[in-house]
Automatic annotation (TrEMBL):
It comes from the Bacteria. It holds the Pfam family TPK_catalytic. This is Thiamine diphosphokinase. It is an enzyme of class 2 (transferase). CDD domains: TPK. Keywords: ATP-binding, Kinase, Nucleotide-binding, Transferase. Its EC number is 2.7.6.2. GO terms for molecular function: ATP binding; kinase activity; thiamine binding; thiamine diphosphokinase activity. GO terms for biological process: thiamine diphosphate biosynthetic process; thiamine metabolic process. Residues 142-205 form the Thiamin pyrophosphokinase thiamin-binding domain. PANTHER family: THIAMINE PYROPHOSPHOKINASE. InterPro entries: Thi_PPkinase, Thiamin_PyroPKinase_B1-bd, TPK, TPK_catalytic, TPK_catalytic_sf.
Length: 216
């Protein structure tokens, strides 16, 4: 990876799979508040640690005494994760891996990160959200390809009405499909290898479970 790839360590769950390690290999790291706990597990030292530190236990602070800290008040207008992303962009990020972004106890944070990821993709950034067991990639007008294990689960969730949706190399392919906003038609598909997505217009997110073969 180039020095324009940043991994943002967030406070959600993170399972250390080989796929996750591959996704973050060679990247630069910024930790957001309690997301620093993932640094030790990954064996990395972030170049910056930001947040209000309300979810950072004292022992974690002591474990990384030499990482520069950028504190913010608890009463602020953005999440710690969004602040960390802004700092990564200021440092030259073009690809962002949001690790610890999915699942967890705070559905509001997870939803906000999915929406934020689509917004970042619209600005031209390459975005991956991951928990290690689940991944999410924005889908906008154009084409993307995801290298998923055969028989693993994936879904497309529309954040708007979708037009001209194509899904190739999947158990349930689609050709020039119109997906109404809120429809569940594209939930729980099964990959047959590298899955190709084409979208004419709209905003969506592809949620994949690379280690989940329960749909077989």
């Amino acid at each position: 990876m180039s020095q324009s790839t940043f991994t943002i360590l967030l406070g959600g769950e993170l399972v250390l799979t080989e796929r996750l390690r591959s996704a973050v290999s060679g990247s630069r790291f910024i930790a957001a508040d309690g997301g620093m706990r993932h640094a030790a597990a990954l064996g990395v030292v972030p170049e910056l640690w930001v947040g209000d530190f309300d979810s950072t236990p004292p022992d974690l602070e002591g474990a990384f005494p030499h990482v520069p800290k950028q504190p913010y008040p608890a009463a602020k207008a953005a999440t710690d994760g969004e602040i960390a992303v802004s700092d990564a962009i200021a440092r030259g990020a073009r690809r962002l891996v949001l690790a610890g972004a999915l699942g967890g106890e705070r559905s509001d944070h997870a939803l906000q990160l999915l929406l934020y990821a689509v917004s970042l993709a619209e600005q031209g950034f390459d975005i991956l959200l991951t928990s290690g067991t689940e991944e999410a990639v924005p889908l906008l007008a154009g084409k993307i390809e995801l290298d998923l294990p055969r028989n693993s689960l994936f879904s497309v969730s529309g954040f708007s009405e979708l037009h001209g949706l194509y899904i190739e190399n999947a158990r349930y392919p689609l050709i020039d499909f119109h997906l109404p906003f809120g429809s569940s038609r594209t939930i729980s598909n099964i990959a047959e290898g590298k899955v190709r997505f084409t979208l004419g217009s709209g905003r969506a997110i592809v949620l994949a479970r690379p280690h989940d073969f329960s749909g077989v």
